[in-house]
């Protein structure tokens, strides 16, 4: 059901997202959807929860398998963000626009979680960060990566940058790493 819901959301947008359309795409009755979800909003919340959990897992796995060097951690983090968003290019913009308070809260929770994951992974490398306050610089770089990714996902349909998601990840990681490793003047 959630795969069908994501498909309907990504192909038809929020205006076409109905319980009936999801049921039709899933090959189940409308009643089957209502037995699991109390309505369209709960179904949307479930899609968002699944995507946010996937983002958290993808980032955690990428950081866990990265070489323990600052450049590799920043690259792994940025590529994990890009990988998750690239597989849901049309879904994220729909989920990001017109959210209810609980949807915003879950999104912010996921972003805080992935920021914490990178911050913890990079702590042994704070000496490699040449800014006056390395911890602050790391948080700023992490939030900049996250914000850039979210912004790109929200606007890529109407304001394309002609980069693939992997190209975007490489360029963004390079910018963040340059900031972190260049001394403040």
From TrEMBL:
<dbReference type="InterPro" id="IPR001647">
    <property type="entry name" value="HTH_TetR"/>
</dbReference>
<dbReference type="InterPro" id="IPR050109">
    <property type="entry name" value="HTH-type_TetR-like_transc_reg"/>
</dbReference>
<dbReference type="InterPro" id="IPR023772">
    <property type="entry name" value="DNA-bd_HTH_TetR-type_CS"/>
</dbReference>
<dbReference type="InterPro" id="IPR009057">
    <property type="entry name" value="Homeodomain-like_sf"/>
</dbReference>
<dbReference type="GO" id="GO:0003700">
    <property type="term" value="F:DNA-binding transcription factor activity"/>
</dbReference>
<protein>
    <submittedName>
        <fullName>TetR/AcrR family transcriptional regulator</fullName>
    </submittedName>
</protein>
<feature type="domain" description="HTH tetR-type">
    <location>
        <begin position="1"/>
        <end position="55"/>
    </location>
</feature>
<keyword id="KW-0238">DNA-binding</keyword>
<feature type="DNA-binding region" description="H-T-H motif">
    <location>
        <begin position="18"/>
        <end position="37"/>
    </location>
</feature>
<dbReference type="Pfam" id="PF00440">
    <property type="entry name" value="TetR_N"/>
</dbReference>
<dbReference type="GO" id="GO:0000976">
    <property type="term" value="F:transcription cis-regulatory region binding"/>
</dbReference>
